[in-house]
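As promised in the previous annual report, we have extended the structural survey to additional targets. Below is the entry for Probable molybdenum cofactor guanylyltransferase.
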Amino acid sequence: MTSTKPPESTPPLLGLVLAGGRSTRMGVDKSTINYHGKPQFEYVYDLLATYCDEVFLSVNAEQAVRLAGSRFTQIEDDAAVAGPLVGILTAFQNRSADHAWLAVVCDLPLLSEQSIRKLVSNRKPDKLATVFRDSDHQFPDPSVCIWEPAAYPAILRAIEEGKPYPRTILMQHEIELLVIDDVRELTNANTPDDVITVQKRLKPGQTNPDKRKRN
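The corresponding structure token record, generated without further manual editing, is:
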């Protein structure tokens, strides 16, 4: 497969698999659940590898110990930062503030390579971010998002203002909003019942849900 990389005039693109959540409702580390013949974090990692110069795992301290010595380059969440921005903020602070980050949460088992390609192909580096609309087609869904370098100071300002929420940041800035071809790909699997539902949608041997294009 031919890699789709941004032009040299744009900030290079790094991948970030957001796997460091506590998975309280799931009861087990949801990043390790096998939907596609491999742990979900590895599935997302491999999806991003085609389109990014390098891919990193955003992990908590326990995961960092468990995955030490593996093939996956890790960025351990900064304990001094709390909330849903911890992964992407730590990546900007501790790895690179000059790159763009394609950040994807690890609980979207129906997410396809086609959607990653669409996001990267329609990337607008002059905007704060490129992101899909949510399942209701009303707001940006930060679970699959390209954050440009300009997002870093915007994130810092949001934290200072007491509004450390990815969706809020996206809504307050100029962004590129796309429509995902199959909205089911944005389905989060956060509970054991969600896992059962997803597994029913994925037939044996398939790695993507059935495609029903939106007009």
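The chain is about 30% helix and 20% strand. Helices lie at 40-49, 61-66, 86-94, 113-121, 151-160, 166-171, 192-201. These points will be discussed at the next consortium meeting with the crystallography subgroup.
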